[in-house]
Specification:
This protein is an alpha/beta fold and 266 residues long. Helix content is 41%, strand content 22%. The strands form 3 sheets. An 8-stranded parallel barrel has the order 1-2-3-4-6-8-9-12, surrounded by 6 helices. A two-stranded antiparallel sheet has the order 5-7. The N and C termini lie close together (9 Å).
Length: 266
């Protein structure tokens, strides 16, 4: 397993800064956000991704995956074609695509999402880059393992994958071992989040906190990974506020150590 950091949380850093962050925190590389406002964007991906990949490689680090904008849901779009082709050329093995919305008619919404996912499977086969779908809680098709299985059913796991998120399935899924089991043939990536519930004015909401401090049952996560024989990339998302950049480094290093200990038997 390789531990990478989601560079969404390193906005403002150039590629060299991202590399320095990974080196200083003991991480194996990056989950590179290819989004507007970052060093590599959907518009410049053909030129800037090769440069970023070369810099990471020369630093002894990996680009374990690329995370696309959340609205990248059409495999026929020029932006999707360009991103997959660029990743294929530099050896990035996976792309987290966007989210298919639930609009109120599950059967119809699932049907449309499966059509698009089948298109991504063809694009993945062509470029040798796996199209991965993330279990994000909320009004999305594929928000948990059960629906994600329905989305990916009958699609080749070589070309499409499941990106299970520990925090989001703790909010909107079943027991984590069952979540893994549901998508086992496609299980490619693991996103690390921990969750705290907060009540304000009689309304409950949740927010992300460092791993080990919230409701995620990490021992069960470790058992589920072992049962699934998982050996993929683990993306530490770090989607919580910090006082400053130094604190973000400290917390990333602590999360890496915590996860290494929890998953030592996997």
């Amino acid at each position: 397993m390789k531990f990478v950091y989601f560079t969404k949380m390193l906005k403002g850093q150039d590629v060299a800064g991202m590399i320095a962050f990974c080196k200083e925190t003991g991480l194996d590389g990056a989950d590179l956000a290819v989004r507007p406002g970052y060093p590599v964007t959907p518009e410049n991906v053909a030129t800037e991704l090769p440069r970023a990949a070369k810099a990471f490689r020369e630093a002894g680090l990996i680009l374990g995956l690329v995370t696309a904008p959340t609205d990248l849901v059409n495999p026929s779009a020029k932006s999707a074609q360009a991103l997959f082709e660029a990743c294929g050329q530099v050896g990035v093995p996976a792309i987290k695509i966007g989210y298919f919305p639930y609009r109120g008619n599950f059967n119809e919404d699932l049907k449309q999402a499966r059509t698009q996912m089948a298109g991504f499977a063809k694009l993945g086969e062509k470029t040798r880059v796996r199209a991965c779908y993330h279990t994000h809680s909320g009004n999305f098709i594929g928000a948990n393992g059960a629906v994600l299985r329905m989305l990916l059913q009958d699609l080749d796991p070589h070309h499409v994958g499941a990106f299970v998120d520990t925090g989001h399935v703790a909010v909107g899924g079943g027991p984590i071992r069952m979540e893994f089991d549901l998508v086992r043939p496609w299980l490619s990536l693991l996103a690390i989040k921990d969750i705290a519930w907060v009540k304000k004015d009689r309304t409950w909401s949740y927010h992300v906190i460092p791993a080990g401090d919230g409701i995620v049952r990490w021992k069960e996560v470790a058992v589920g990974l072992k049962e699934s024989k998982f050996n993929g990339t683990i993306s530490v998302h770090g989607e919580y506020d910090t006082r400053d950049y130094a604190e973000r480094k400290t917390l990333a290093k602590a999360e890496r150590a915590f996860l290494q200990k929890q998953f030592a038997s996997v």
